[in-house]
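Hi U.,

Before I forget, here's the chain from the pilot set. I'm dumping it here mostly so it's searchable later in email.
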Amino acid sequence: MSELNMPLGDLRVLEMGQLLAGPFCGQLLADFGAEVLKIEAPGVGDPMREWGQERPQGVSLWWSVVARGKRSVEIDARKPEGRDIIKKLVETTDILIENFRPGTMEKWGLGYEELAKINPRLIMVRVSGYGQTGPNSGKAGYGSIGEAFGGMRYVVGDPATPPSRMGISIGDTLAATFACLGAMMALHVRERTGRGQVVDSAIYEAVLAVMECLIPEYQQLGYIRERTGAILPKIAPSNVYPTKDGKMTLIAANQDGVFKRLCAAMGRPELATDPRYSGHVARGDRQEELDALVADWTSTYDAEALGALLDEHGVPRGDIYRAPEMLADAHFKARDAIVSIMHPKLGELKMQNVAPRLSETPGKVRTAGPELGDCNGEIFAGRLGLDAETLQRLADAGAIGRVTEVAA
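Structure:
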């Protein structure tokens, strides 16, 4: 399951929970070689298996990505026999990921104190809406709720409309990314102490962590950030601008030196020394006026010609890409930013590659999301040594999924 030449190829991970916040953490670990066993309810599986707007041949493309590189084992943690199996697996597990409502694992007798008695080196990654402590800890908290509570939803969108979402599950993936970072730090500490610990990643705190200076702006000045659409207030020119052929180009020329290069590209070098625009504060004070001036200029060029001119002058600019543009772009291809893997039902399946890139021991997308219970036999019979009679009894009780082939 794991590849020892990969950065995390010597790690065993148990992934409990479902949907996105915990599983994305598992995806990141699997991307770099960890053996990630995803524990799923027998016969049911993670609801992510059914998610996604498009489902060719009934296959969830979302599941194919978030469960990539993992293996599936069917265990019912609500049943005592299932919990006993989980405890046996914990004996040789490095990291356990869970994203249930706080208190659930303790109710099942699978809290950290209990599991640490079995394996003192265990690192338990706990992802939740509000964290494991505090007055809100027991509340249900999905990613969208964490985005609202952590301050992101209020500042996203057009000022004329109610708060918007990002279009992706950013709260979940931020919490999962911080959870993965925490797991790596806990592993480093374990090298010194020999003991594991709990990583408590709250969705709202992960969101809050990337909210820049939102808190001190209010604490010091009473300033509350509002929704501003495509711009940041007082940062100019930095916006989406129209082109002659009806496309859009993002230009970020708010720094003094870059603005000077933009003025040269526009054929108006005098603007760089004009007192109305010659400094960061001055440009910010005239943001709307300056954006209109830049937009009038970009509207005289087709997008391709505009991009070439801006590149020639070293002005940061970007086309606004969708999937078709990404798949056709030479830079994406040169860096293998999108990879192809073989899916048992769909054939060639393209998806985003692993990030970040390591020069000596890179990560790798090994497989798409697994079939439900694809390694039941390998784990129950092979690793745990359960005989056929025991497997049948546990499956009949609903504690585990059925094993069609018993490993020798």
